[in-house]
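User: Batch of two.

Assistant: Item 1 of 2:
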Amino acid sequence: MSTHRFDARTPARTLPEDDSPPGRSRRAGLTRRSLLAGGIGALALTGGSAAWAYDRFLREEVDVEDVSAQEAASGVAAGTLVPADGVYSSTGYTSSTTTLEITRSATGSGATALAWYAAEVTVSDARLIRSAFAEDDFGRNITEMPSAIAERAGAVLAINGDYYGFRDTGIVIRSGIAYRDEPAREGLCFFADGRIAVYDETATTADQLIADGAWNTLSFGPAVLVDGAVPDGIEDVEVDTNIGNHSIQGEQPRTAIGVIGENHLVMLVVDGRSEGYSRGVGLPELGGILLDLGCTSGYNLDGGGSSVMLLDGEMVSDPLGRGRERATSDILYVAG
């Protein structure tokens, strides 16, 4: 295995410009929406309810507009100052409140080649780990390129989130505000005191989590590392089985959060589906990578073509070996 420092803000390869048509969100290749559209067409051909499928999986539903303004008005982040003394390096960032360093690791060759990017992050205030929504709106089927979301948020480092907008279940708390309270699965909670914990959504509520100090929650999963061990059975877990969605199993591009300690975490992106560059990993192997990075717990986020890591607005990872990102509904980012 080779692990080395690199210029994280220079993509590993140069490819043609995305030739997808202009619109609210530019995307590359087959997107989740295009796959869904194919499924809706099949429904129409078989007499299914294409109108229902369109309303559920394609039509944008804005529940909360201008989220940033509402968060500012709520005062939840009052006293959390983003420093003005931050300095980027070729592999990270340092300020009076934050240190982060990205390493690229690679193993194997040909069909066994694997590449991943790990950002070790330490912050002085847990509220510097934040989330941002596509188009700055909360709702279903609202998407935007991660780099555009990150630029608007002023993100130092960003990864894709849980793609909350693709489903209508899960507990969604962002910056201390509850947006959805539909418990369904194993979630991840970032607390304002620096703790990060995997929890059972069905055993609590959004209000109770906020009372306990929740800052952000993510709803995807599963946990791939618990108390320093990879759990049994995670290779059988499914998150979504609805129309147009794929299994989360098998060797895939991955995004994950690993926890080393309070205010000390790893943001991990594994590239995949690109023979000779990176094959991707299964969930047990993902947990093993986080364990090797010094984490005691770890949680799987949305993956596939959605997986991405950005430093100072530029892609670090190359999720499908194409040098392009895919639109999603949210990012998790380091503010400064």
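Item 2 of 2:
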Amino acid sequence: MNAPTRTPEHGLSKFHRLLLEQVGHEFTASHQYFALAAWFDDRDLQQLSRVFYRQSLEERDHATMMVRYLIDNEVAPNIPGIGEIQTEFSEPRELVALALRQERQVTEQIQLLARVAREEHDYTGEQFLNWFLQEQVEEVATMTTLLNIVERGAGDLFDIETWVAREMPDVAGGPGPAHDTAGPSVS
């Protein structure tokens, strides 16, 4: 007996369609963070590269949490492609400013998802997004602080690297227990 074909075109709610799109946004963010990490790594800025490699993995995990939610709710996980990735920069401030813009954009996307879930009376979807809403507060705050430190460092990359090593240890944080992922996660 064949399982029914589930595609985004066949009766998905607006919330589920947007969540499928968000999977692509999260994978794009993961790739963008990887590009930032590689830029820092290529310049022997190991502390900054560590922060962004970790961010890349976290964004990938966010995408896989969404995929797991879709699968668990019998929505075909038609994974979208990723968007454009910027790879050319002239100085570290540009990279951190891009990361902050990206986090603010993702925050807007998650807020839209929560609004649509509420409008559609999808209480399970709304509840699912609560973790992401809390996570985005932390992500924006972290990138805002890092941008402030880079700007105050005024090009002294040694001091910035020292601050990152001291104040941003490689510890998995977040707003509490995360959702399950589709496949393994970093935590």
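Residues 1-8 have pLDDT under 50 and may be disordered.
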